[in-house]
Amino acid sequence: MADEQPLYHPRQLFDGMLKNQYHQNADIYFEELAGKANVDKNMNALHVKQYNAAMEEVEAARKKLGKAKAGKGWTIAGMIIAFVAMIVCIVIGVLNSSIWWMILIGVALGILGGFFIFLLATSVKKAMAIAKQELAEKEAKAQKILGDCYADMATLNAMLDDNMAAEVMEKTTPIIDLDRSFSPERLCYLMERFGMNEETDPNTSVLGVVSGHIQGNPFILEKVFRHEVKDKVYEGSLTITWTTTHHDSKGNTYTETHTQTLHAETTHPAPFYWDETRLIYGSEAAPHLHFSRRPSGMSGKSDKDNEKFVRERVKELDKLEEKAVKAGRTFTKLGNDEFEAFFGADDRDNEVEYRLLFTALAQRNILDLIKKPEPYGDDWIMVKDGMLTSVASKHSQTFDYQMPIDYFKDYDFVAAKKRFVAYCDDYIRGLFFDLAPIISIPMYQIHKPRDYIYGGQYRANMTSFEHEALINRMDARLFRPDKADESLPLLLKEMNAKKIGDNDEVAVHVLSYKTTPRVDYVSKMGGDGRFHDVPVHWTQYDEVSCNRNVGLMDSKQSRPTFTNSSLENLKKYLNDAGIHFERGLFSFFLGDEKAHLSSSVANNIQGVFNKKTGE
Fold it and tell me: Burial, 233: exposed, middle or buried (Cβ in 10 Å; 0-12, 13-18, 19+)?
């Protein structure tokens, strides 16, 4: 197990030791949790085996019922054909006496149709009933065994808690200290010491946040939902045809048909949405340095390609150096052309601090991250803005670092463990390689910040980051404005927050759109020499909004304690549909802007948690 020493060679350490240790500790963590839950793994394995066998019987019964339904269908089809043919034959025989025998055929077909009716009423009906009953019995048997499987796992499923993956990561690498939640103390530290700002843009909303520190240097990983209204181009088309008359050399006349598809465009404003995940790290190392770098695109390339890339980049850097001298600025290449080429911080503004940060060891570490394609390669943007450094990687844009707890619940111990360990592997690997560009720089670990004493003057008990993260995970139907298109996401933005004892009351502005289908007709000249109106379908977006109030609190409880002890008592004061809990944080829906959290209800809520936590 790694101790609390700096990770001076993060890539080598991860590949050579930490990767396996993280995986093993995730396995151990789940096994220990199962031990505390007294899960009988052998009994569960037997029940799962029985359930799988029962489901095979269910599938066989479904096929049997399918065949019975097919037989019924063919019988009905035969009956219909027989009676239709009967009518046709009798009509022909009656209308044409010379082929009177068609009547006899019609009678025979009628008898055949009657036989089909007899089959439907007897053997087909019986076969259907038997197949349905057999399927129902097999499904009931399978559901009973599934209930046994869930009973085996009930205690373990109830003990699953948030931040389990974070606990595995901390256990393996204590130097990476992760918080249970992003506290006001941590936020104020980042704001007052390092200059970080809250997400106050009304077109943004925090979806999730992970916070912690390395050797006292704080960091957060935030996922932010962003919204922008801009022009959208809509396309339409119209196919036209026309004929032309021609004469050949012999004076014969003929026509030719022409087909053409006309295309048209129209532009109208529309909302666009996207998520951004980035890691923000606070450090007093090189406090006056600013730079940015983007992926080089050279991960996993051959030595020949790398050499060519370096040669071309060095020429660019030489020109940049000349321009800087003429402009009276300082830009001086490092002695390591490969690092300069691949890292590419061409816009740095403090050469002394840049060299202080990127020592020979830091350069080697960074190159090791960039050049190797596994597990993610050079997929990260890095920006240093004074005492804040941010990293935004491609791999973290699509990963949920706060997976809902139901994802880990299962009736099968083996499957549950496999899913948990796999998620821990993905969580830890993703977060580690977001931190890797930072911890590759020894100065970011060696340089410990000055002591900070939190004054306790933050405006609410919880941060706006956590407010919005929890609100965004509540039932969207509670917030949706009237006439808002349900297919569109909601932008939930905190307007203000106030303390009511240990509770926070948060006013939320909800933004969405009403959509109306529209059509523009754009005139286009066709090959027939005429103008045609090409229809272009587009959507008109009209903003709709409302305000909602939400109560939130840091219960400081585990999920099992909250679920088993506090939830039922809270339902006496709150609407069950509006309650959400994760990572010890508790949110509850109050209503529209006129609905407020009274002091008496706030005290009752606090009383529930005081009683259960022994405070």
Answer: exposed
Q: Is residue 317 part of a domain?
A: yes
Same domain, 411 and 474: no
Give strand pairing partners of 531.
525
Backbone angles phi, psi at 72, to 5 degrees: -65, -40
Contact call for residues 306 and 270 (beta carbons, < 8 A): no
Report d(CA 154, CA 34) in Å as an integer.
11
What is the four-CA torsion angle of 9, 14, 16, 18, rounded to 10 degrees?
120
Assigned domain for 594 exists? yes
- pLDDT, one tens digit per residue, over 31-82 is 999 999 999 999 999 999 999 999 999 999 999 989 888 988 898 998 899 8
Q: Are residues 50 and 132 in the same domain?
A: yes
CA distance 176 to 22: 13
User: What are residue 61's DSSP bridge partners?
Assistant: none
Q: Report how many domains make up the chain.
A: 3
Q: Are residues 128 and 53 located together in one domain of the fold?
A: yes
Measure the CA–CA gap between 253 and 34, rounded to whole angstroms: 89
Q: What is the pLDDT of residues 402-417, one digit of tens each?
A: 999 999 999 999 999 9
Side-chain half-sphere of 213: how many Cα atoms within 13 Å? 16
Would residue 542 count as lying in a domain?
Answer: yes
DSSP state of 425: H
Range of the domain at 385: 285-446
